[in-house]
């Protein structure tokens, strides 16, 4: 079967600064790919190119076999900065992306996704009445409610405390088991990648390339304390120039 996303020899420079140095990648339908790499290597730039928000200097991105040169309606991005509208309630935020017909009862659909991410009872709350973790849940629900085929996640949980971060990982995996999405996740957290991804790509310093690939075939839920994960974590950290 053809890949859902095909990234072919992508290069990107900003003026004289080469940022992406030639990246090729195939992502299968329903696959979860995590990308780790040194700070400033070009992870976000690569993600923006794949999501269609940035144009490559060379190369192309195909989604379902079609070359894309702009944001892809089949995908949705969740970034570390957040995009919840402060003047809308949780329910209104979730309904915001449901443009056009074909969604059925939009408020019921919004409430369904609010419940799915654990926000039942907060549908009428405004963002300023929620905690940081709850805001991230709104963000996630807002992305999922439009039933995207692809989720592009750039450090989505990095602003959360460690405990909430762990909760959100588990939550996301539970939702992904229910609703199959293709996911590309950028993270600086190797354990987060090991916990969730089917495949982990380690990027090189700028201009970035894929330096190493790790398949993670272990089923969920994963216990990262197991030797095989510790071993893989050490290998990935070694690729990143960190020895523990
Ligand atoms: N729009 C832009 N114009 C000019 N330079 C840019 C632009 N976007 C990114 N860069 C540069 O590209 C390089 C890579 O940035 P990018 O944000 O892609 O890296 P990153 O790996 O995601 O970083 P971090 O690990 O800090 O999140 C940086 O040197 C940055 O200054």
Automatic annotation (TrEMBL):
Residues 5-230 form the ABC transporter domain. It comes from the Bacteria. InterPro entries: AAA+_ATPase (IPR003593), ABC_transporter-like_ATP-bd (IPR003439), ABC_transporter-like_CS (IPR017871), ABC_transporter_ATP-bind (IPR050166), P-loop_NTPase (IPR027417). The keyword Transmembrane helix does not apply. SUPFAM superfamilies: P-loop containing nucleoside triphosphate hydrolases. It holds the Pfam family ABC_tran. One of its GO terms (molecular function) is ATP hydrolysis activity. Transmembrane segments: none annotated. Keywords: ATP-binding, Cell membrane, Membrane, Nucleotide-binding, Transport. SMART domains: AAA (SM00382). Belongs to the ABC transporter superfamily. PANTHER family: ALIPHATIC SULFONATES IMPORT ATP-BINDING PROTEIN SSUB, TAURINE IMPORT ATP-BINDING PROTEIN-RELATED. This is ATP-binding cassette domain-containing protein. It comes from Rugamonas rivuli. The lineage of its organism: Bacteria, Pseudomonadati, Pseudomonadota, Betaproteobacteria, Burkholderiales.
């Amino acid at each position: 079967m053809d890949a859902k996303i095909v990234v072919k020899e992508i290069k990107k420079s900003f003026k004289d600064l080469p940022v992406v140095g030639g990246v090729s990648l195939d992502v299968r339908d329903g696959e979860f790919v995590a990308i780790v790499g040194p700070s400033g290597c070009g992870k976000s730039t690569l993600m923006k190119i794949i999501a269609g928000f940035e144009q490559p200097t060379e190369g192309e991105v195909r989604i379902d076999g079609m070359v894309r040169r702009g944001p892809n309606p089949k995908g949705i991005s969740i970034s570390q900065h957040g995009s919840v509208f402060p003047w809308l309630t949780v329910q209104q935020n979730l309904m915001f992306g449901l443009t056009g017909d074909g969604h059925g009862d939009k408020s019921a659909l919004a409430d369904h996704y609010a419940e799915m991410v654990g926000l039942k009872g907060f549908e009428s709350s405004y963002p300023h009445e929620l905690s940081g973790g709850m805001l991230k849940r709104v963000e996630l629900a807002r992305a999922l409610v439009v039933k995207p085929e692809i989720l592009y996640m750039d450090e989505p949980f990095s602003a959360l405390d460690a405990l909430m971060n762990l909760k959100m990982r588990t939550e996301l995996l539970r939702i992904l088991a229910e609703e199959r999405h293709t996911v590309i996740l950028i993270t600086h957290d190797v354990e987060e990648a090991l916990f969730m991804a089917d495949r982990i790509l380690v990027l090189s310093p700028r201009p970035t390339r894929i330096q190493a690939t790790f398949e993670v075939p272990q089923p969920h839920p994963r216990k990262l304390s197991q030797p095989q994960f510790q071993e893989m974590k050490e290998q990935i950290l070694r690729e990143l120039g960190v020895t523990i």
